[in-house]
Specification:
alpha/beta, 9 helices, 31% strand, globular, binds adenosine-5'-triphosphate, translocase, ATP binding, AAA+_ATPase
Amino acid sequence: MVSISLEQVGVSLGRRTVVRNASATFRAGTLAGIVGPNGAGKSTLARAMLALVPHIGRILVDDAEVATMPRAELARRVAYLPQGQTLHWPLTVERLVELGRLPHLAPMSRIGDADGAAIERAIARADIAALRERVATELSGGERARVLLARALAVEAPALIADEPLASLDPGHQIDVMELLHGEARAGALVIAVLHDLTMAARYCDRLVLIDRGTIVADGTPAEVLTPANLKSVYGIDARVELAGDWPTVTALGRSR
Ligand SMILES: Nc1ncnc2c1ncn2[C@@H]1O[C@H](COP(=O)(O)OP(=O)(O)OP(=O)(O)O)[C@@H](O)[C@H]1O
């Protein structure tokens, strides 16, 4: 049962402190959303959990510090869907998804039967079978987003960090992706997703972590975190928050004065 723990984590980029004193523990079986305004530090925090940016404090995957963990081992334990990735190589979709298996392969070894099965499962779960022969650089933004999600799923890691997995997706595919991430968590994975759509985040996430200017300012259930007061102080908006079923829906009414 995987867990990721942050203990007083700070990240500086250049001369700017981008994440300050962040502490939180994320456990298996959870879909956690990281929300907050543009530039708040969400992606940077996600990247720190993958040891892609240096940090102070401690970040643990189970009991091992990410800063000293061999990169392939970390990649096997925590899959990553980066934000808005550009593709440079004209690979077919199938070959691109295959790259998700790299952390499992010994140097110079080839894809085996187990890898092939994981690739097929990822293609099915991301619903991209119809795209498998296409050249990835020729896909639409939404198609590319689902292919990159499939690559991350192909790792079959116990944890997945997805940075804005809904970007470029139409409403139907947004629901598909959130249901998929929710399903992964129900099946025992830890899923952490950076999200901008607060109603989607509230509907599907078990827990939300709200970040403002590098600091975690709220951490709890969607109803606890998405209060009009928090939305006003963090996003600078007046918002109506209504309970729709079990989750709050957020309507931004305007900039608060
Ligand atoms: N390499 C860098 N050097 C200096 N500052 C950086 C660097 N990369 C990002 N930043 C700054 O760090 C802050 C946090 O950026 P980050 O991408 O983590 O925010 P975010 O919450 O994910 O934003 P968004 O919602 O817009 O994607 C921003 O102010 C950004 O300008």
